[in-house]
Amino acid sequence: MIRSSHPVRCLLAGILLCSLALPAAASPAVGSPAPAFNLTDQDGQAHALKDYAGHWLVMYFYPKDETPGCTTEACELRDNIFAYKKMGVSVVGVSVDDVESHKKFSEHHHLPFPLLADANKTTARDYGVLVKMMGLFELAERDTFIIDPKGNIAAHFSKVDPKTHSDEVLKALAQLTSAH
After folding, report:
1. Mean pLDDT, the chain, as a whole number?
2. Domain ranges of the chain
3. Please, are residues 61 and 94 in contact by the beta-carbon 8 Å criterion?
4. For FRET with 24, which of 6, 72, 125, 136 sits at 20 to 30 Å CA-CA?
């Protein structure tokens, strides 16, 4: 039986928890070209970076469909979709879940934007957000990239708060779009 009052066991448990997620490779720097992608959404439609040329794009990465934080973040973006559309901004979500998982998640929460399936993890790796959890499986970190109409990274948010992130992105977009 493990007791929380045992100092050595508590220390070992703390070390284990801190080492559960191995860091991702470096993300592309603000101002650099966004890595190209070609992914399928929950409806089987292909999406590529070049499809968004000439428009602003919010590309948010999240760990897993139907988990509490990911659901909160997706619903916050959903609830602000008219503000994004008014600004002429497209929103896409990306995780390493498959198309069928995205379809269920999108339908369950009535998400009005594409969820892109990165099952081979190439895009998450290219954006530097792929992390290995517990040494067993890989997930995307909760990061967001704003990509400008020329295809460059205009802003990068890492380890965001799902409850307030959509508002944070809208504020950044207001500043970025007024500067262009």
Report:
1. 88
2. 21-179
3. yes
4. 72
Q: Within 10 Å of residue 144's Cβ, how many Cβ atoms?
A: 25
Candidate list 10, 18, 70, 75, residue with the active-site label: 70
Sorted by sequence, the CB contacts under 8 Å of residue 66 that are 6+ apart come out as 101, 104, 105, 108
> 45 to each of 20, 41, 94, 103, how far by Cα in Å?
34, 5, 14, 12
pLDDT digits (tens, 9 = 90+) for 90-145: 999 999 999 999 999 999 999 999 999 999 999 999 999 999 887 788 999 999 99
CATH 3.40.30.10 holds for 21-179: yes
What confidence score (pLDDT) does residue 70 get? 95
Is 16 in contact with 147 (CB distance < 8 Å)?
A: no
> Whole-model pTM?
0.84
165: Cα separation from own chain's centroid: 11
Q: Is 70 a catalytic residue?
A: yes
